[in-house]
Design goal:
Number of helices: 3
Strand content: 15-25%
Structural class: alpha/beta
Helix content: 25-40%
Largest sheet: 4 strands, mixed
Oligomer: single chain
Strand order of the largest sheet: 1-2-3-4
Length: 149
Amino acid sequence: MDSLEINVHSYGTLNLKAITRNVESGLKQLERSASRENDKQIPCIIILAFESGIGLEWRQLSSHISWLLEEHTNLSAIAVLDWTPDGTPPPQTDGMEAWYQFFLTTPTVPRFVVFHNTWLQTTKPFSTKVFTDKWSIQLSPVRYWEGAI
């Protein structure tokens, strides 16, 4: 397989099994690359991209990413490509109509939400200087998944 493929159920929820399968497949590729480079500690990062965006599924995805990172202590980070409005949202006091107009009319730009692995054991951490544009976010996950699902 030449690319990471994410499948979403037709009823709109995230297919966590497909995400897990693809992350694990990508990690195997990274491990082979590290072997070829003769550096078993080279930072390993997986980037996920979703054709239709994440929408309201961020809590579920964040929880699953935290679980994946804790399970794979040789994976330095997982980044998610997302779209974000390129502008300043209206104050909450302007009401829902203003927010609705903001999301309809404001152009979106790509950003990365990077989850750094705090459970690393055999791999170097991924540099926090890589995703330093004004939109991207870098997080150190905790056990979101405990009791969340």
